[in-house]
Each structure stands twice: as structure tokens, then as C-alpha cells.
């Protein structure tokens, strides 16, 4: 077995999907940033030229990762994590501000975004901690430490401000759930989200009435077969109603107007069609334009470099967060579906790979990788096609940006490296 | 469970995304979306609107240049407002107000500051314009009329409104569209098609070049000229005769159904609805609810036809065989319906068809009318037959002319009277007024002229129409070259026409004779009532004349209807005879009569019901 070389053991299926995504991404970056005057695709003064350079850097990163000793990542996971946290703290003193967020270090030729690095580091650190023989996720204490590992970078990134990136870390809960973290936490989360949305849409009174009816239904149909513990049940009910009551307060007093408008748009809270249209074209301008661009693509799209809205630069941030709208306009439904399928196959393949790991660390890290990639994909495309409110995070392998591409690549290939070693008893 | 959690979420989210994308890209997608793509600016090249010529090739409607003063608010430099306002002939407040509106609309895009300057104003402004930065002059094309007549027939054009934009995707806000009359009916021909250039824009509205190298661009298609059937000279003459009178005149060429004149009085100069004063003038005309200059009486007024309708009853009776030429009725200076006596002005005595028509005897036609109904076992059957005959003359329904408005008039049927009186509660005697064209029958002047055409042609007519040719092509819609036959056989027309010719020779219209021209006609004196402040009052009779000439081979058939003109030959007959003479001879020999008709007005009649004082009707004042 060990006789086969590295190239025989690497998961080529995943590599192919990765290469596809990066290529499609670049083609679309080319389309969105191309101007009539620009010349060679290797012209590094253009954004697509730069992105090509970053792709080169990412390749170098892949080579490095593949030739590093497998144990290295597990052994130094804690060190990476500490370095990453220090870099995040360091931003408060030495950070460079771009577009209002202090998220970068200016390295002269390159702006480094440590929150990208921190994603890799946190995934590694979480896997390392959970795979430790002494860690038992069933105990409150260890649950707490795991939460600290996840939430520390999130808290450090939040004030940059970059709420989008800090949201990413919550995806690591998927790792915890996989490893036996009680699922009812997820239940609580879902209930909270549903209560939040329904309260905003229908008001506390109706939510209360709804909960009451639900209670009556549960009691009439379930009481006969199972005995329902009255006390905890009523506690849940009361907490739910209190939560619902607080939603309005938080929404009106803690949120800022721009947040409120985003929710108003997302949940169609504004009943006046004229005002809703107004919000759609001002606060929801990005989403409105990106939806329109996607819509105008039809089934086969307008063709490469033929997207009028893309060319006219109507969709803001199109080469970064809104890159998917360019796919929609120029490649149509065929293109968007292909991309969705590619991502879905990638995730399913990675889950399959993660599950076949013998080493706990590899499996847990694998889940970390999947969770992080998935949440980016989910939030980004959900936003671009108008299903989720505006949250600015990039689409992995697609969006323009050096730090993003390089660290997503490393995140993925560290896992492929671990996988290529799964049959060795090295650990 | 914990192993499947993430996989199932991935699958669910994948399906959700694809679902949403198919909604956006498959369901909401429409292929002509390029029309409202903000990234593509369309620049239009407007063709000149087609000219309108009369039947003899005389220009009636052309185009003239007009000049809009435009402003781009961002580029305006401080200026001498007072001087500028004097130049543009606007006051300062108006100027400031307009500038504010332009800025609100867009500081970057041009707005109209003063619309439609005349050539003269433009000439004065031209040399000084360069002192005022941010302002420029844009040329556009307006209608130009070589006649001050025919306003209602020609119609006017105006800016498209919301509804037009929704109904017809061709139009873009700010464009002009034919609104009434010929301008509306032949909009597509006259307008042509605008040319379109597609320009790719960026989100700052900057042009970045032609879209798809101009593959979708189109060249403008010139509007085509049309020739209409009106005779400009006759039309203008008729309108002069209508001076100070209300009513409608329609003349038709019987051999073709071409409408020679179509006049409504009072009318207005079509030039009033062009240019800077347009909206002021429009309001003035539109809100004149008493004389209603924009209400085209020639096709919209539906008065009772009066005595000319008797000729049709004579024809029906002959066709049904209930009378012949010799059949006689006695007139007792009136006739009896039960115990009630209805009057007649014919002088009394025994009447046959000829004298019945030329003396316009009410008793004769009451008798005829009864006989028509007596032929059938039930009144309903008689009514159906009568209605069918009448409608074959184009009465009681839309004629189907190429004029966008019109009225059907009314030929009452059994359903009408069943509703009014109750089923079985009426008979021919109940509705006897229809015998003499009073009662419930109603017809527009156009329908009366068409009726004269059908009689003059001895039994057929062409759908009256106004379009002669489009451009150089001769052919028009075949529906206008297809004869419509009446239900009356040709042989029955001669005796009736004989009566009508005698109307002119010895009868009620002997006052209007033209040396050298034989006319067949029928006068009408129509009682009428109005309601002023809830009070029903009778006004002076309407004067009606329906005729065609020459008798044997008619070149013109016409109906003249003058509101409150008193008896038939008094106004309508005289005006009709002048028009016939003008059309056939080209000049007027009876200068005294012409002078009298041009000068006399009926304003005193129209003022009567609004004077608030008691008044007399049917006064003989000349």
C-alpha cells in the first residue's frame, strides 16, 4: 500500500472539482473586470491578472502542503491557533483599513487577511482538542473549552467590523454535532431563528397564540400515548414567549436602521408595495441588481463576455462577493446549476472522505473544512440569489481575493494530505 | 443521525438553490428583457410624420419645426436671469420653478425648460443662446395645418399617457400619438417606425459603446403620406356656412362611399392644439360644455331624423306591397290616433305618394305606417320586418367607417318597446311617431347622408370612408369597395325619388333651387326638447335636409342638420343647396343667398334657454 506514491493516494475526484471551480471562478472574474483597453491575461495591473497570480501562489501552497510531513499539522495545531489569534489581536494596532474594515496587514505586494488564516488554524485546533484522548465532549467543561476555541476568533473579528467572517466560525458547530455534542442545541438554535422571524413577521401576540395552539395540539394528541413532563414543557413555552417579546425590543433598539431594512426586505415586513420597492432599490440595491442580472441570463445565459449588466458594472462587488451573479447572467441556468452541483458533489465527497478516516483528528479536521466551505457557499449564494439577507462573505475558490483563495486551498489540501496518509499507522 | 446531518443539509440546500434559480432564470425570465435592461440605452431616431392630402392632392396637414429649450441643471453657470426670462418670454417665478423640477428629475440629464418655441422666437434666441451655459435648443417636429377647417375629422396628436404605454410596448414616454380622428385611425401609417440605436452603458450612465456592434439597431421607417376623401375647398366652405350655427353636415360621393365633407359646428382651428398654447386652448375647448366644439356632431349627434325618414317608410310600404304609387290617404290637417288628433302642415286634402312626399304630409305616412303593420298577423312580426328594412340602410347600428368614433343611432325593435310599454301593450298606433321620423328613431348626420346615398344609388351604398389612398398605392381596405344592398328592390326607388325631386321643384324645398341642377331631397323640421335645471322645455325645431344631386346620376349625397334652425329648408336646405352648387359647379351663382347664410347666426336661439327668461320658439325672423 505505502508503495504507491503521493499522486496515487491523493483523492483526484476532489482535486478535479477544485480545479474546475477555480477555473470557472477565474473566467468569471475575467468577464467582470475586463475592460476594452486591457491587454494580456498576465497583465498584473488588472484584477484578473492578479487573480491568476494568486492561483499560481495557491499552487505553490498546494505543493508545500503536500510535501510537509503529515504529523506536522496535528503537532503544531495549537501553535498555529495561537499565532492566528495573535495576528487577529495585532490588527487592532497595525491593521490596514480597506472599505471601512480593519482586516488586513499591508505586506507591500499583498494585503494579508488574518481572518482567512484563522479559519484554517481554528479548524486544526478544534480537531486537535477534540481528538485528544482526554477530551470528552459529553461533559460540560469540555464543551465549554471547545466553544471557547470556536468563539474566540469570532469575537476578535466582530469589531473589525466583519460580522460576516465572524459568523463563519459558528459553522464549526457541525464538527461538534458530528462528535456527539447534544443535538438539542441545534434544536434550540432553529427554534430561536424561527421565533425571531415569525415574531418580526406576525408580532408577539400571534406567535403567542400560535404557541398556545401548538401546546393544546401536543397535549390532546400525545398525552394519551406518552406522559409529557409538565414543568420543563411549560418552561420552554414561557422562555419562548419571553424570547419573542424581546425580539421586538432588540430589533427596534439594538439593531441599526440598515440591519432593520435588510430584514424588512428579506422577510417582506414592509407591507406597502411602493415602499418595499423603494427599499429594494436602495438598501437592497445589490441584491436587486444581482437578482436582475441572474434573471436576465435565462436558461443558456447571454454567453461569455456578453453580460450587459456585468459589463456595465451594475452589480456592486461583482468580482468578489457577487461573482455568482456573473455566472447567472453569462452562463444562465445551465451554468448556475452546474456550479451548485459541483459544490454539492464536493461537499458530499468530502463528507465521504472524512467518514473513512481512521484517525479522529483527520475526521474532525475534515468536518471543520467542510463546515467552513459549506457556510461560505450557503451564505454567499443564498445572498446573491436573494434568499438570505446581505452578509458580505466570499464564495470559496470563486471570488476575487488572494488571502481567500490561498487559505481555502490550503484548508482543503491539508485535508487531502491527511487523507492520503489515512492507511499509514503513523499517528 | 449525526453522520447524516451535514450530508442532508448539503442536499436540501442544493435543491433549494436550484429551485430558486429556476424561479429566477426560467420562470421570471422573459426573452425581450433587453427592452428594460438598464445597461442598454436606446437612442431613437424619429421619422417625420406622414402628410395628409385631400382628394384633389391639396395639402391639409404637414409638419413644422418647433424648438424646445432644454436645460442640463449641472452645467448651468450663474446667469442674468431677468434677461434670460425676457428672452424666453417667461416670468422669473416660472423659470425658478422649472429649474427646480429639472434638478429634481436629474441634474445630469436634459429636461425641457420651455417647450415648442416658434420659428420666430427661435431666431431671436439663437444668437444669444451661447451666452447661457447649460441650455441648448432641441428641434422637434409639430403638425402644421394649411387649413383652419376639419379640426374634428383630422384629429390631433398628443403625448402618450400611462395607458398607451401599457397597451402598446412600441411607445416610449414623451412620444406623440394620434389621439382622435384621422390621426388616431391611421396612426400606424402616418407615424412610421422610429429607428433604434442600442448603446451599452455603465452604472454611471456613461456610454461605453454600441451594444453588440449595433446588430440590434434599426433604421427609422418613414411615415407615409395619405390622401383622404375630403374635398378641402368644400370642407372650408361648409365650415364658413356653419358660422354661428350648431349642427353637422356630411356629404358622400354615392358612387364610391367616399366622404366629401364632414363638418361639425361650432368647430375650431386645428392649429390651436399645436404648440405652446396647446394645453390652455385644449382646456378652453374641452370645458365649453354648452357649444361643445370638440364634440363632432356629424358622427356623434343622434337627433330624430324627422321627415326625411318618411321616404324610407314609403320604400318599405312599396316593397311589402301594402301600397302602390296610387294609394291615397286623406289628410284632415292632421290625423287621428284613437281620439287624439296629430297635426299636419301640408294643407290637407287627398294625398298620393308623390304629393305625400313633396308636401311632407304626416297623415299620408301615418296611414302608410299602419298599413305596413296591418300586413302581419302580429305587431311583433311587423316590427321585425320593419326593423330589418330600416337597418339595411345603415341605420340603428355602427356603419363601420374608418373614423374612430361614432354612434349607432337607433331603430327601435320589439324588445325596445316591450321593455318600455310592456309586452303586448303597444301597437303600430302607439309608435306612430316613427312614421314621420320623430318618436324613437334616431340617426347621426352621417347615417342620414348614407341613407341619401342608398336612395340615390337606387338600393345600395358603400361603407362611408375617409381614406382614399396611402402613399402611391391605390388599394384600400376591400370592405370599403364592396356594395351593401338594401332590402328594397330597385324598382321601388323611382316613385320615391320622383317625390323627392318634386320636393325641390314644387314642394317644401322649392325655395332653395339652383339654376341648372336637379336635386332630389327631403326637408325635415324636428321638434326637440332639453332639460335646463331640471325643467323640460321645447326649443325651436331643428332644421334638417337630406338630398342628392343630380337626380339621375348622383355625384353628391348629403345630410345637413342645423340645431334650432326651424323648418327644413330655412337653414339646412339653403346650406345644402350652396354646398351642392359649390361641389358640382365649383362656384356660387346665388350671391345674395350665400351672403345671407354666411352672415346669419343662430346665437340668439342658443342663448334662449340659458337666458332665464321665458322665450318664444319657432319665430320667423328674417
Properties at a glance:
heterodimer; A: 3-stranded antiparallel sheet; 3 strands; 3% strand; globular; B: 622 residues; alpha+beta; Beta-lactamase; 6-stranded mixed sheet; 5-stranded antiparallel sheet
Number of domains of chain A: 2
Q: What is the general shape of chain B?
A: globular
Q: Uncertain regions of chain B: pLDDT < 50 for 5+ in a row?
A: none
Name the structural class of chain B. alpha+beta
Q: If helices are DSSP runs of H or I spanning 4 or more residues, what is the number of helices of chain A?
A: 19
Kindly report the greatest chain-chain contact and the residue count on each side.
Answer: A-B, 43 and 37 residues
Q: Give start-end ranges of low-pLDDT stretches of chain A.
A: none
Molecular structure report:
The complex is a heterodimer of chains A (427) and B (622). By secondary structure, chain A is mainly α. In chain A, 68% of the residues lie in helices and 3% in strands. Chain A folds into two domains: 6-182 and 282-420, no CATH class; 190-281, no CATH class. Chain A is built from 19 helices and three strands. In chain A, strand 2 (101-106) and strand 3 form a beta hairpin. Chain B has 622 residues and is of the alpha+beta class. Chain B has a domain at 298-463 and 476-610: DD-peptidase/beta-lactamase superfamily (Beta-lactamase), CATH 3.40.710. Chain B contains 21 helices and 22 strands. In chain B, the strands form seven sheets. In chain B, strands 2, 3, 4, 5, 10 and 18 form a six-stranded mixed beta sheet that branches. In chain B, strands 12-11-22-21-20 form a five-stranded antiparallel beta sheet, with helices on both faces. A three-stranded antiparallel beta sheet of chain B has the order 1-8-9, with no helix packed on it. In chain B, 41% of the residues are buried.
Amino acid at each position: 500500500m505505502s508503495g504507491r506514491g503521493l499522486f496515487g493516494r491523493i483523492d483526484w475526484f476532489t482535486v478535479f472539482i477544485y480545479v474546475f471551480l477555480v477555473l470557472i471562478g477565474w473566467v468569471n472574474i475575467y468577464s467582470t473586470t475586463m475592460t476594452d483597453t486591457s491587454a494580456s491575461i498576465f497583465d498584473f495591473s488588472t484584477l484578473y491578472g492578479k487573480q491568476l497570480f494568486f492561483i499560481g501562489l495557491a499552487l505553490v501552497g498546494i505543493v508545500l502542503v503536500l510535501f510537509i510531513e503529515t504529523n506536522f499539522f496535528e503537532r503544531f495545531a495549537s501553535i498555529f491557533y495561537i499565532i492566528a489569534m495573535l495576528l487577529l489581536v495585532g490588527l487592532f494596532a497595525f491593521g490596514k483599513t480597506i472599505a471601512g474594515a480593519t482586516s488586513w496587514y499591508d505586506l507591500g505586494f499583498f494585503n494579508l487577511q488574518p481572518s482567512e488564516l484563522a479559519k484554517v488554524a481554528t479548524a486544526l485546533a478544534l480537531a486537535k482538542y477534540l481528538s485528544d484522548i482526554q477530551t470528552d465532549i459529553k461533559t460540560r467543561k469540555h464543551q465549554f473549552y471547545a466553544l471557547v476555541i470556536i468563539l474566540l476568533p469570532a469575537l476578535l473579528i466582530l469589531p473589525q467590523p466583519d460580522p460576516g467572517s465572524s459568523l463563519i466560525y459558528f459553522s464549526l458547530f457541525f464538527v461538534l454535532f458530528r462528535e456527539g455534542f447534544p443535538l438539542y442545541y441545534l434544536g434550540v438554535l432553529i427554534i430561536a431563528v424561527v421565533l425571531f422571524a415569525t415574531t418580526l413577521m406576525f408580532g408577539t401576540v400571534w406567535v403567542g397564540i400560535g404557541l398556545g395552539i401548538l401546546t393544546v395540539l401536543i397535549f390532546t394528541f400525545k398525552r394519551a400515548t406518552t406522559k409529557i413532563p409538565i414543568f420543563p414543557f411549560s418552561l420552554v413555552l414561557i422562555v419562548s414567549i419571553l424570547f419573542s417579546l424581546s425580539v421586538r425590543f432588540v430589533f427596534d433598539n439594538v439593531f441599526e436602521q440598515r440591519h432593520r431594512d435588510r430584514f424588512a426586505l428579506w422577510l417582506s415586513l414592509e407591507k406597502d408595495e411602493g415602499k418595499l420597492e423603494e427599499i429594494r432599490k436602495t438598501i437592497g440595491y445589490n441584491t436587486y441588481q444581482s437578482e436582475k442580472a441572474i434573471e436576465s441570463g435565462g436558461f443558456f445565459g447571454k454567453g461569455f463576455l456578453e453580460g450587459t449588466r456585468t459589463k456595465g458594472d451594475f452589480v456592486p462587488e461583482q468580482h468578489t462577493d457577487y461573482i455568482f451573479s456573473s455566472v447567472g447572467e453569462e452562463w444562465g441556468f445551465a451554468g448556475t446549476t452546474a456550479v451548485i452541483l459541483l459544490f454539492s458533489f464536493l461537499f458530499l465527497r468530502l463528507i465521504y472522505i472524512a467518514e473513512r478516516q481512521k484517525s479522529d483528528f483527520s475526521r474532525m479536521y475534515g468536518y471543520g473544512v467542510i463546515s467552513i466551505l459549506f457556510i461560505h457557499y450557503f451564505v454567499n449564494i443564498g445572498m446573491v440569489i436573494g434568499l438570505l439577507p446581505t452578509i458580505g462573505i466570499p464564495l470559496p475558490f470563486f471570488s476575487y481575493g488572494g488571502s481567500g483563495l490561498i487559505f481555502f486551498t490550503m484548508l482543503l489540501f491539508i485535508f487531502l494530505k491527511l487523507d492520503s496518509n489515512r492507511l499509514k499507522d503513523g499517528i | 443521525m449525526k453522520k447524516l446531518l451535514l450530508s442532508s443539509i448539503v442536499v436540501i440546500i442544493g435543491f433549494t438553490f436550484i429551485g430558486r434559480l429556476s424561479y429566477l432564470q426560467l420562470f421570471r425570465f422573459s426573452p425581450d428583457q433587453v427592452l428594460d435592461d438598464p445597461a442598454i440605452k436606446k437612442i431613437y431616431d424619429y421619422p417625420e410624420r406622414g402628410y395628409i392630402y385631400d382628394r384633389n392632392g391639396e395639402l391639409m396637414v404637414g409638419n413644422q419645426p418647433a424648438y424646445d429649450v432644454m436645460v442640463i441643471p449641472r452645467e448651468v453657470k450663474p446667469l442674468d436671469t431677468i434677461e434670460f426670462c425676457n428672452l424666453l418670454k417667461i416670468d422669473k417665478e416660472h423659470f425658478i420653478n422649472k429649474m427646480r423640477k429639472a434638478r429634481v428629475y436629474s441634474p445630469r440629464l436634459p429636461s425641457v425648460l420651455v417647450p415648442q418655441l416658434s420659428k420666430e422666437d427661435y431666431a431671436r434666441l439663437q444668437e444669444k443662446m451661447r451666452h447661457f451655459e447649460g441650455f441648448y435648443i432641441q428641434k422637434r417636429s409639430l403638425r402644421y395645418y394649411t387649413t383652419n377647417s376639419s379640426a374634428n375629422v383630422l384629429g390631433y396628436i398628443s403625448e402618450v399617457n400611462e395607458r398607451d404605454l401599457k397597451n402598446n410596448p412600441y411607445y416610449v414616454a414623451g412620444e406623440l400619438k394620434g389621439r382622435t380622428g384621422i390621426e388616431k385611425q391611421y396612426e400606424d401609417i402616418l407615424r412610421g417606425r422610429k429607428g433604434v440605436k442600442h448603446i451599452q452603458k455603465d452604472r454611471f450612465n456613461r456610454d461605453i459603446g454600441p451594444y453588440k456592434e449595433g446588430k440590434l439597431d434599426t433604421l427609422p421607417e418613414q411615415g407615409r403620406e395619405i390622401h383622404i376623401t375630403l374635398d378641402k375647398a368644400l370642407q372650408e366652405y361648409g365650415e364658413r356656412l356653419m358660422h354661428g350655427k350648431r349642427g353637422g353636415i356630411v356629404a358622400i360621393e354615392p358612387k364610391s362611399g367616399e366622404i366629401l365633407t364632414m363638418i361639425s359646428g361650432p368647430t375650431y382651428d386645428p392649429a390651436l392644439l399645436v404648440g405652446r398654447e396647446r394645453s390652455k386652448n385644449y382646456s378652453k375647448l374641452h370645458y365649453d360644455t354648452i357649444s361643445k366644439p370638440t364634440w363632432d356632431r356629424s358622427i356623434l349627434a343622434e337627433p330624430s331624423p324627422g321627415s326625411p325618414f318618411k321616404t324610407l317608410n314609403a320604400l318599405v310600404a312599396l316593397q311589402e306591397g301594402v301600397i302602390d304609387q296610387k294609394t291615397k290617404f286623406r289628410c284632415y290637417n292632421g290625423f287621428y290616433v284613437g281620439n287624439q288628433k296629430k297635426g299636419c302642415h301640408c294643407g290637407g286634402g287627398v294625398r298620393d305618394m308623390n304629393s305625400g312626399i313633396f308636401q311632407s304630409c304626416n297623415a299620408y305616412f301615418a296611414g302608410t305606417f299602419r298599413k305596413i303593420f296591418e300586413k302581419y298577423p302580429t305587431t311583433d312580426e311587423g316590427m321585425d320586418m320593419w326593423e330589418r328594412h330600416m337597418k339595411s340602410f345603415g341605420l340603428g347600428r355602427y356603419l363601420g367607417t374608418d373614423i374612430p368614433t361614432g354612434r349607432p343611432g337607433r331603430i327601435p325593435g320589439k324588445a325596445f318597446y316591450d321593455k318600455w310599454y310592456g309586452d303586448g301593450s303597444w301597437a303600430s298606433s302607439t309608435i306612430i311617431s316613427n312614421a314621420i321620423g320623430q318618436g324613437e328613431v334616431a340617426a347621426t348626420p352621417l347615417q342620414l347622408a348614407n341613407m341619401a346615398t342608398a336612395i340615390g344609388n337606387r338600393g345600395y351604398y358603400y361603407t362611408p370612408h375617409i381614406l382614399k389612398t396611402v402613399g402611391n398605392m391605390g388599394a384600400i381596405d376591400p370592405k370599403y369597395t364592396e356594395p351593401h344592398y338594401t332590402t328594397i328592390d330597385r324598382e321601388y326607388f323611382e316613385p320615391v325619388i320622383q317625390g323627392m325631386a318634386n320636393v325641390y321643384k314644387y314642394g317644401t324645398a322649392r325655395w332653395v333651387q339652383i339654376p341648372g341642377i336637379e336635386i332630389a331631397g327631403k326637408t325635415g323640421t324636428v321638434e326637440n326638447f332639453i332639460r335646463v335645471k331640471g325643467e323640460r322645455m321645447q326649443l325651436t325645431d331643428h332644421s334638417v335636409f337630406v338630398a342628392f344631386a343630380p337626380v339621375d346620376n348622383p355625384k353628391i349625397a348629403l345630410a345637413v342638420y342645423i340645431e334650432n334652425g326651424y323648418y327644413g329648408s330655412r337653414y339646412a336646405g339653403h346650406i345644402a343647396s350652396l354646398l351642392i352648387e359649390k361641389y358640382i359647379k365649383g362656384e356660387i351663382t346665388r350671391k345674395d343667398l350665400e351672403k345671407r347664410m354666411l352672415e346669419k347666426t343662430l346665437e340668439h336661439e342658443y342663448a334662449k334657454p340659458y337666458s332665464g327668461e321665458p322665450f318664444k320658439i319657432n319665430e320667423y325672423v328674417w
